[in-house]
UniProtKB/TrEMBL annotation, chains A, B:
<feature type="binding site">
    <location>
        <begin position="210"/>
        <end position="211"/>
    </location>
    <ligand>
        <name>ATP</name>
    </ligand>
</feature>
<comment type="pathway">
    <text>Amino-acid biosynthesis; L-methionine biosynthesis via de novo pathway; L-homoserine from L-aspartate: step 1/3.</text>
</comment>
<dbReference type="GO" id="GO:0009089">
    <property type="term" value="P:lysine biosynthetic process via diaminopimelate"/>
</dbReference>
<dbReference type="GO" id="GO:0019877">
    <property type="term" value="P:diaminopimelate biosynthetic process"/>
</dbReference>
<feature type="binding site">
    <location>
        <position position="185"/>
    </location>
    <ligand>
        <name>ATP</name>
    </ligand>
</feature>
<keyword id="KW-0418">Kinase</keyword>
<comment type="similarity">
    <text>Belongs to the aspartokinase family.</text>
</comment>
<dbReference type="InterPro" id="IPR036393">
    <property type="entry name" value="AceGlu_kinase-like_sf"/>
</dbReference>
<feature type="domain" description="ACT">
    <location>
        <begin position="267"/>
        <end position="343"/>
    </location>
</feature>
<dbReference type="GO" id="GO:0009088">
    <property type="term" value="P:threonine biosynthetic process"/>
</dbReference>
<dbReference type="InterPro" id="IPR054352">
    <property type="entry name" value="ACT_Aspartokinase"/>
</dbReference>
<dbReference type="GO" id="GO:0005829">
    <property type="term" value="C:cytosol"/>
</dbReference>
<dbReference type="InterPro" id="IPR018042">
    <property type="entry name" value="Aspartate_kinase_CS"/>
</dbReference>
<keyword id="KW-0457">Lysine biosynthesis</keyword>
<feature type="binding site">
    <location>
        <begin position="7"/>
        <end position="10"/>
    </location>
    <ligand>
        <name>ATP</name>
    </ligand>
</feature>
<dbReference type="GO" id="GO:0005524">
    <property type="term" value="F:ATP binding"/>
</dbReference>
<comment type="pathway">
    <text>Amino-acid biosynthesis; L-threonine biosynthesis; L-threonine from L-aspartate: step 1/5.</text>
</comment>
Length: 421, 421
């Protein structure tokens, strides 16, 4: 008998009909002889509606009370889901984050899981019950207050439960068939990836792939949880996100997938004196604004001037604050000027096979050159190559590279509407 | 420094604006130098909407899950209320039933409070915080499950908190100015009662007065909690419901108030053999249907026939089941027939002063006789006289008696719309 953890997002439980459909799916898994633990999000737009209510009451809601408020959303969906399963003749019990032993730190709105003590869940499983757990929420042992985990919280809840209960697999239900080699809306011949390592998945997620949250993948990786990302609309196999053991030989394609990202801007600090410590000085100023700097590139200095340029990318929304901070300290740092460019696109090529294959960069440069796409920045990791292009070239670049690295499928993928969080 | 418990019902917190208004009221009480604990119901129709959702999922929702579902309603209102207070610069913290130590038995949907251990509330009060508690809900220590208290649950929560914390008064906010000598919609010259004993209040509530739930009054009486029923729309003094100590002399009017009730039906068992044990036999059959029998009257038997009639009243909705049960056992009991009358009205005259005053019944009979209103049944307690009349005479009876017992005010009362639960 296997233990399977399943996660259903808000769009999968948006109304009574959807809840009954999900209940049926859970019962099927149970009927196939598995123990089942389910993490469920709040129904449809409930969380946004509650946030809205809070802002009608006060522009700056107290974080503790906001968590108390938001945590009511999953109570509703989980109780309804448990009822629906019960009405099909199977035993089901719902548990809040605190009843499920989801212990977090005290950071309201973005709490991190510090321990999972699923005593009551085990009892319920031993009694033959299907277990439904509120996603997104936990509680802090010191303050005894309810907390929420922030964006992607329900995915993290599911993975944490799978780890704590030693589940065989953690199924993440979504409205797409799995992880694709590239967004099928951009590259119609994108292929569903059968298996991907969590390391690759992390790189893809960090590079803009939207299906899984980085935090949940990180947790799965750290605790050796296998994820199965699949559609809640059909019974197709989805994508397995696996954790090969150290030294384990997994046959891996050179390139597993491509991700693109249009949400970043580029800032270039022009004419920086090429002396030690200048980069450190600049990024200390940037760090003070809490900006999430992504790629950093420093040009070789022109020997004649003794000056260099430093470029970096960051979320568009954070650019203004950083520009302001740098301007304020221009005299002290001694650079000549600042350039701001929000018309860039980022593309990442990810594949664990890169480790043992040379020539990937060369092939990438060649392919983009043939397509007359100019590369503005490059950065690499062991299993990833990222490039920055003009924003309006990035989709073309993805199509060109998807073909060049033999990722194209024989047929076009079926694309669903929505994003299914 | 006084400790005041305040209860606000769903109509007082129906939207963001109402919540801010209630928050202001709470802050005023705090600013006047009091410690404040608030019990709050779910917003407006939330509870009904959640019930509706449950019934869309399954016609017979599992009681445990239904309580889990319904308990989310107060989480929303209490968190919003705490936020609103916080935004006014006062410290406030919200607590669920289980966080507040509201321990109940395990009867989902109609749980009874067995203990209140408000450790966290005391801590919060000691730290200078205003305490907001979810009404209507508790938890069971054995099953560790969330429970709800059923109808009037938030009133009961408030009273139980007042008792456990030794509050000076428990203020029940509603949309009327207090308890009136009679429903002002029927008797425009009804007067607001300044002080009433809990004993009288219980009789009035049992006789159909709608402002307070019997259960909450019973709890207040048992634990010596003083209630103050008042309007959330103005600052007028409302009605104090007090608990005079044994032997304490309180000057009491002969009649404190009148209540009417049109929700009952009368069943008459005709031609019952007048031998010992027959009444017991009949009410054993009635009891099996769980009917809530109210008044019972047995006529003196006609010596010639050796037969008597037994009449009783009960909620209209329960009449059919009782008639069926009695019919099934007609042969065994040996009565001649059954009469069912759902056009009756009940009126109760309540006053602790009746104990020491004779002649109240005589005055009542006289007044109704002069008004040509026929009395069909009579039952009395130490501090109450109830009569049954035709349904369409009961309001006339109330007006006649209101005048006869000098309850009429000089001016007509202001009547608000709604009933404000």
């Amino acid at each position: 008998m296997s233990l399977i953890v399943q996660k259903f997002g808000g769009s999968s439980v948006a109304d009574a009909e959807s809840i009954k459909r999900v209940a049926k799916r859970i019962v099927e898994t149970r009927r196939a002889g598995n123990d089942v633990v389910v993490a469920v999000s709040a129904m449809g737009d409930t969380t946004d509606e509650l946030l809205d209510l809070a802002h009608q009451v006060t522009p700056l809601p107290e974080p503790r009370e906001l968590d108390m408020l938001l945590s009511s959303g999953e109570r509703i969906s989980m109780a309804l889901l448990a009822m629906a399963i019960k009405s099909m003749g199977y035993d089901a019990r719902s548990f809040t984050g605190s009843q499920a032993g989801m212990i977090t730190d005290a950071q309201h709105g973005a709490a991190r899981i510090v321990d999972v003590t699923p005593v009551r869940l085990r009892e319920a499983l031993d009694e033959g019950s299907i277990v439904i757990v509120a996603g997104f929420q936990g509680f802090n042992r010191d303050t005894r207050d309810i907390t929420t985990l922030g964006r992607g919280g329900s995915d993290t809840t599911a993975v944490a439960l799978a780890a704590a209960l030693g589940a065989d697999v953690c199924e993440i239900y979504t409205d797409v068939d799995g992880i694709f080699t590239m967004d099928p809306r951009v590259v119609p011949r994108a292929r569903k990836i059968q298996t991907i390592t969590s390391e690759e998945m992390l790189e893809l997620a960090a590079a803009g792939a939207k299906v899984l949250y980085i935090r949940a993948v990180e947790y799965a990786r750290r605790h050796g949880v296998t994820l199965h990302v699949r559609s809640s609309f059909n019974n197709n196999e989805g994508t397995l996100v696996i954790n090969p053991k150290e030294g384990e030989q997994v046959e891996q394609p050179i390139v597993t997938g491509i991700a693109t990202d249009l949400s970043e801007a580029k800032i270039t600090v022009v004419g920086v004196p090429d002396v030690p410590g200048k980069a450190a000085q600049i990024f200390k100023i940037v760090a003070k604004t809490n900006a999430n700097v992504d790629m950093i590139v420093q040009n070789v200095s022109a020997a004649a001037t003794g000056l260099t340029d430093i470029s970096f990318t960051l979320p568009k929304s954070e650019a203004q604050a950083v520009l302001k901070a740098l301007q304020a300290d221009q005299g002290e740092v001694g650079f000549l000027g600042l350039q701001h460019d929000d018309q860039i696109g980022k593309l990442a090529l990810v594949g664990a096979g890169m480790r043992t294959n040379t020539g990937v960069s060369a092939k990438l440069f060649e392919a983009l050159h043939l397509a007359s796409i100019n590369i503005e920045m490059i950065s690499t990791s062991e299993i990833r190559i990222s490039v920055v292009t003009r924003a309006d070239s990035v989709n073309d670049a993805a199509r060109v590279l998807h073909a060049a690295f033999d990722l194209d499928a024989d047929e076009e993928a079926i694309v669903y509407a929505g994003t299914g969080r």
